[in-house]
Amino acid sequence: MSYRLVFTDHYTRRAARFLKRHPEMRGQYLKVLQLLAANPHHPSLRLHALSGKLLGLHSVSINLSYRITLELLIEDGKIIPIDVGDHDAVY
User: Considering only CA atoms, which of 13, 11, 56, 6 is closest in space to residue 36?
Assistant: First the structure.
């Protein structure tokens, strides 16, 4: 099953800011988005549910330092990215 990434205006601005600060991450970031759409449960993404104030959201890893938080709507086949950045910024 393939999933559909749904980008909000808020996320698009956050991602543009992230990529401006970290242009070296562009290729890895785009690869994560492609893999996320193809198979969000792929082991290299390290998908996990969040708790506390982010209960109901999930996170995937771009690398050891950077994450994407997202809303995963499996029943509708939609993945809505919420935020992107380093661990402290997105949690």
Answer: 6
